[in-house]
């Protein structure tokens, strides 16, 4: 959405993810999250992100965050339960620890 490559972020995530279980497996020093913006992020994109995370380590916690319209993006709807569930199911195909965050923001649509 910002027009800049995410290559550095992916490389940093991979480097941390490949090493964080070595030293402190009981404390997740690395977690991933995706903001579910309606019209921008869908289950296919979440599944691709989950595949990438699983390649690093399928035990990395992944949170799907509900979107609430504010500031510049105040013309969009909140994330729906349907979108959140579809994204959750897509991520669960590849990862062990997936959760939906900000559930109080989900709309009934």
How big a fraction of the residues is strand?
A: 5-15%
Helical content stands at 25-40%
- List low-pLDDT spans: none
Largest beta-sheet details:
3 strands, parallel
Q: Please state the structural category.
A: alpha/beta
Order of helices and strands: HEHEHE
The number of distinct structural domains comes to 1
Number of separate helices: 3
Number of strands: 3
Radius of gyration: 15 Å
Biggest sheet, spatial arrangement of strands: 1-2-3
Shape: globular
How widely separated are the two ends?
24 Å
- Mean of all residue-level pLDDT scores: 89
Short structural description:
This protein is an alpha/beta fold and 109 residues long. The protein has helices at residues 7-23, 43-56, 81-92; strands at 32-36, 62-66, 98-101.
Secondary structure elements and pairings:
Elements: H1 7-23, E1 32-36, H2 43-56, E2 62-66, H3 81-92, E3 98-101
Parallel strand pairs: 1-2, 2-3
Helix pairs in contact: 2-3
3D architecture notes:
- Helix content is 39%, strand content 13%.
- It contains three helices and three strands.
- It has a three-stranded parallel beta sheet, covered by helices on one side.
- Helix 3 (81-92) links the parallel strand 2 (62-66) and strand 3.
- The two termini are 24 Å apart.
- The mean pLDDT is 89.
């Amino acid at each position: 959405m910002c027009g800049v490559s995410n290559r550095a972020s992916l490389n940093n995530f991979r480097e941390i993810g490949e090493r964080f279980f070595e030293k402190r497996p009981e404390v997740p020093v690395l977690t991933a999250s995706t903001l579910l913006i309606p019209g921008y992020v869908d289950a296919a994109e979440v599944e691709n992100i989950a595949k990438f995370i699983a390649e690093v380590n399928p035990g990395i916690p992944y949170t799907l965050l509900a979107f609430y319209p504010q500031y510049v993006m105040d013309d969009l709807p909140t994330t729906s339960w349907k979108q959140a569930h579809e994204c959750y199911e897509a991520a669960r195909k590849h990862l062990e620890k997936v959760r939906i965050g900000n559930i109080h923001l989900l709309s009934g649509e």
